[in-house]
Amino acid sequence: MRYPLIITNAAQMHIKYKLILPLVFLLSGIMLYPFIFSLWLSLQDYRLTRINDVQFVGFENFGFIATDQSFLNAMGNTISFVASAVIFELILGLSLALLIQKLVIFKGLVRSILLAPMFITPIAVGLMFRFLLNSEIGIIPFYLLRVGVSLDWFGPELALFSIVLIDVWQWTPFMLLMFLAGLEALPKTPFEAARVDGAGRWLTFFSITLPMLRPVIVVALIIRALDAFKVFEYVFAITRGGPGNSTETIMYYIYQTGFRFFRMGEAAAASILLIIFILVFVILIVNLSRPKVIK
Fold first, then answer.
1. What is the pLDDT of residues 36-55, one digit of tens each?
2. CA 13, CA 86: separation in Å to the nearest integer?
3. Measured between alpha carbons, how far is residue 187 from residues 170, 199, 219, 243, 258 in Å?
4. Tens digits of per-residue pLDDT, 115-156?
5. Torsions phi, psi for 188 (to 5 deg)
6. How many angstroms separate the most distant Cα atoms in the chain?
7. Which domain CATH number covers 285?
8. How far apart (Å, rounded) are the C-alpha atoms in residues 15 and 154?
9. Which residue, of 58, 120, 208, 292, is most buried by count of CB atoms within 10 Å of its CB?
10. What is the DSSP code (8-state) at residue 156?
11. CA 235 to CA 166: how far, in whole Å?
């Protein structure tokens, strides 16, 4: 006679920890070493042109970076880029998800077509739009000029906006995917009750759909914003931070400081400041997104 195997909760937790711990140690080693080394590097006058003459300077690199006009300009450009791109992607992604949810035929085909840009390498997207929006040979300026619209997409006024549009084109599908999953997971009962009570589409959307999608919106917003802070490929492939420094982002600033001017200590300090800024940003978003409890 066989007896069923009974596993207590304590034994289950023990097994879970034994299964997870190797991965935790591996990820910790992979993540902690670069972070600790970067932290050490940020406290040194470490230049690739004199690698054998490393001097400890304490927080001097942080003081210089925090008052460097180029760093402040790069942070300003990055914040403008992240805010514009993520807001556009949030609105477009949610709108497209609501439209696709209503489709009866060709739903899978439309979804596959709209998700395609997300799977293209960002550097390839940057090079593609570099030619598409080129004022001399680009097909988009050519047809705009035929209807009387002349725009210098990578000029001083529109360069950063063009980078935003390129990011929106590529990463709106990510928002679409998140919101489609969120909408499919919503319970049907509240919507049926609202329909019975005679609530219109807009009232149902703002009173039921949006509040119930709050967790999905917060997660999508944080993930997409974290990725947008790392924008580098479009700038590197198209503008190289120009014209002037109008499209210089923080990642391009760090790249130039470390690998063009060889000031690795200052580049590491800028990286640490970026990590702190992103951490504060995520904490603020999470706290602001929490529903207020009325006592």
1. 999 999 999 999 888 888 88
2. 39
3. 30, 17, 19, 50, 51
4. 899 999 999 999 999 999 988 888 999 999 999 888 889 998
5. -85, -25
6. 87
7. 1.10.3720.10
8. 57
9. 208
10. T
11. 11
